[in-house]
Write a structure and sequence with these properties.
The chain is of the alpha/beta class and 316 residues long. The chain has helices at 21-37, 62-69, 80-89, 147-150, 179-186, 210-228, 281-285, 290-293, 301-304; strands at residues 4-11, 42-44, 70-71, 92-103, 106-116, 122-127, 160-163, 166-172, 192-197, 231-236, 239-241, 244-246, 251-253, 259-262, 269-276. Strands 1, 2, 3, 4, 5, 6 and 15 form a seven-stranded mixed sheet that branches. It starts with a strand and ends in a 12-residue tail after the last helix. Bound molecules: 3-methyl-2-ureido-butyric acid (CDV).
Length: 316
């Protein structure tokens, strides 16, 4: 008898600057109930799920951003209803938020996600490691991508937890483009990887066709799921946030690399799959039997070198 877990991705449509945490939380609670009615036991919500995607804006006043966009406590009075409802329904969840914390004697800010168990306990925390974008103001650009200004690089590493009888890891948005991150989770036995994202439909740096951006999102999700024999659950925040479009395409990908469910809208939408956690067994026993086939002695450059350097071999 194979093990199953009903998993949902709860995609959030746009949150505008004027929307409050309370508004966001109401919509998250509504989707939690929708997921429950589909039989879901584990729900994945997006990155930075309680506010608009604020790294697109330049703010001079850090105190203002701290107040508007970061959570000093999770849950807070405004976000508590989500945690209460999940506990009442017996649902475990992943959610992303801007974390404001006092550590090492100073104020620190991270782009964070947590795993909350169906009994309401905090099971795991992840702080985003691959921060895209820039730290400096680009006044001529159509919009900003200031994750390097607003967050520090995560300091908790890529870890997994025993969560709802499945070995589960977390990532956030841009991490999904980095194979190294997936492999580090897979080497710890990950069966599920949960990830929330906010991806602008337009490229800030050059005029890339929006369809190509979706294509890259889909091929990386399918490749990472297959090459690591994991269930991959990715939930978007999307639609037009004060006129700034982000794509949807939330998805659940099986360890065989097949898209088991995908959202159709750029609004609040829940997708759900009864995931067979044992579907990866044959892959892990054969082609992706890491212990039998990996050759880390030939992968040393992966950890020794950060940027690419042209270093041709000097012999045939
Ligand atoms: N929130 C993100 O990390 N977004 C990036 C964009 C900037 C490319 C992403 O990888 O989707």
């Amino acid at each position: 008898m194979s093990r199953h877990l009903k998993i949902a991705a709860a995609q959030l449509g746009p949150l505008n600057l004027a929307d409050t945490r309370t508004t966001a939380t109401k919509r998250l609670v509504k989707m939690l109930r929708d997921a429950h009615s589909m039989g879901a036991k584990f729900v994945v919500f997006p990155e930075l799920a309680f506010s608009t995607f604020f790294p697109r804006y330049w703010y001079e006043d850090q105190a203002e951003t701290d107040r508007k966009f970061y959570e000093a406590t999770i849950p807070s009075a405004e976000t508590q209803p989500l945690f209460d409802e999940a506990k009442k329904l017996g649902i475990g969840f992943y959610i992303g938020y801007g974390e404001l914390t006092q550590e090492e004697g100073r104020t620190r800010r991270f782009n964070t996600s947590i795993l909350v168990g169906p009994d309401g306990t905090l099971v795991g925390k992840y702080r985003k490691i691959h921060l895209p974008g820039h730290a400096e103001h680009k006044p001529k650009a159509k919009f900003q991508h200031l994750e390097k200004k607003y967050f520090e690089v995560g300091n908790l590493g890529f870890r997994v937890w025993n969560f709802m009888d499945a070995i589960t890891g977390m990532m956030i948005c841009n991490d999904r483009r980095w194979p190294e991150a997936f492999r580090v989770l897979a080497l710890q036995g990950a069966e599920i990887v949960a990830l929330g994202f906010n991806t602008p439909s337009e490229n800030l740096d050059y005029p890339e066709p929006p369809a190509l951006r979706v294509h890259h999102h889909l091929i990386t999700a399918q490749a990472m799921a297959y090459q690591n024999a994991i269930w991959l659950v990715e939930a978007a925040k999307c639609g037009f946030e004060d006129g700034n479009r982000m794509f949807g395409h939330s998805l659940i990908v099986s360890p065989t690399g097949e898209i088991a469910a995908k959202s159709l809208s750029e609004e609040d939408e829940v997708i759900c799959v009864n995931a067979d956690l044992d579907l990866a067994t044959d892959l892990k026993r054969t082609v992706f039997n890491f212990a039998a086939h990996r050759r880390p002695e030939h992968y040393k450059l992966i950890v020794e070198r950060v940027g690419a350097e042209v270093t041709p071999a000097d012999e045939p």
